[in-house]
Amino acid sequence: MTQKIVGMLSSYQGISEQRDWLWRQTPNSFGIWNNTQVIASASKPDFLLMYQFDFPIGKPKKKQSFWQQLRQLRKPPAKPPDVSSLLRGVPTERIIYLLREPPLEEVLPINKANYEAAKQYCGYISGPDQYAPIPDYMPAIWYVNASFRELNEMPPPEKTKNCSWITSGISRTESHRQRLAFLKLLRDNHFDFDLYGRGLPDWANGYGTLNNKWCGMAPYYYNIAIENYAENDLYVSEKLWDSLLSWCLPIYYGGGAAEKLLPPGSYLKLPSLDEKGFAYLKEVTSNLDAWHQARNAIAEARQIILHKLNLLAWLSNFIEKAF
Q1: Which of 19, 125, 130, 240 lies 20 to 30 Å from 189 when distance is taken between CA atoms?
Q2: Across the chain, how many H-helices and E-strands are there?
Q3: Do the beta carbons of residue 122 and residue 97 sit within 8 Å?
Q4: Alpha carbon 257 to chain centroid distance?
Q5: Fucosyltransferase C-terminal domain: from which residue to which, for each copy (predicted)?
Q6: What percentage of the chain reaches a pLDDT higher than 90?
Q7: What is the residue-averaged pLDDT of the chain?
Q8: What is the DSSP code string of 188-227?
Q9: Is 20 in contact with 139 (CB distance < 8 Å)?
C-alpha cells in the first residue's frame, strides 16, 4: 500500500513549519506509523490535519494570537473566512479538523466560530465538547523529551523525590485563577512538593521553567496534574499523559474522560481544589504505598497512551478505515 502523507496546519506557533513535529511519537523514523507518515510542512500531502487551527476573525491588520482574536470576537462572522490558499490542494474529504482547546466559558465563542468555519473546508471535524460536529476526546500528544522506543521499553526510572507539580502563573480564566488559589493554599500550609513552570508569582517559590518536562517528573513518585477544564467527560490533555509516561502516579483533577480511557488505579482522583483536596494530597504523599500499588496499572496505562491514544496511531487508523 502506498504511503499516505499527512501535512499539518496549526495556530500553535511553529508547528506548521516544523517538518519533524511528532516524529518522536512513532516507533519508526520520520514520523511513520504503519502506512501513514506525518510531515507537518509537506507541500503536497495526501491528507491535511488542521490541529487547533484558529480561523481568522474579521480583517486583522496583523497576525493575532489566540487571545487577541478572542478579545476581538463578538459573534461569528457572517460567512467563514477564506483559507483555501493554505490547504495545499487537499480535497475536503481528506482534511481533518481537531480542536484541542477546552470549552471554557471565556473561549467558547471562538471555539464555536472555528467549528462553523471548518464546515466549509473539512470532511471530519471533532473536539472535546458537545458543540463539535463529532464530540470526542483529543488524541494524545506528549511533551516529555523521549522517543517512542525509549518510552515503550523503559522500566521505571530511578525515583528519588516525592511529589512535583508543573504548572504556570497564567490567570486569564476562572479555571486558571482557581488553580492558582489552590497553589496558594498548598504554599500557605507548607505542603512539601517541588514546583516548576513559567510565569509563576514570587510567592509560589517555583524552580523556574523546564525545557524537558521529563526532568520535573521522572525522578518523582507523585505528580500533581490539574486540567484547565474539568466539566465534561471528553477533555483530557497532556498533563495526564506526561505524568504517566514519566512513571509518576498522577494525582489528577479533571473530568471523566480519563476514567473511560485508562485502567483503574493508574491515577488518583483529586477530589477538589480546596481544603479537602489539600488533605487528600497530604495523606496520599505521606508514604510511597500508593505508587507501589499502582505500578502495574501505570505500566498498562503507558502502553495504552503509546499505542492506542497516540495521535499518530489515531491518524493511521482513521485513514485506514475511511480510505
Answers
A1: 240
A2: 9, 12
A3: yes
A4: 13
A5: 157-290
A6: 85
A7: 92
A8: HTT---EEE-SS--GGG------S-GGGGTTTEEEEEEE-
A9: no
Q: What is the CATH number of domain 148-308?
A: 3.40.50.11660
What distance in Å separates the CA atoms of residue 120 and residue 83, rounded to the nearest whole number?
Answer: 10
Burial of 109 (0-12, 13-18, 19+ CB in 10 A): middle
Q: Hey, where are the domains in the chain?
A: 4-136, 148-308
Place of cell 487571545: 67
Helix (H), strand (E) at residue 10: strand 4-10
Reading the block at residue 268, the C-alpha cell is 488518583
pLDDT tens track for 216-248? 999 999 999 999 999 999 999 999 999 999 999
Residue 91 in 3-state DSSP? coil
> What's the grid cell of residue 191?
505542603
Is the pLDDT at 257 greater than 90? The verdict is yes
Under 8 Å CB-to-CB from 295, ≥6 apart: which residues?
156
Q: Which residue has the cell 510542512?
A: 41
pTM score, whole prediction:
0.92
Q: Rounded to an integer, what distance in angstroms lies between the CA atom of residue 107 and that of residue 117?
A: 16
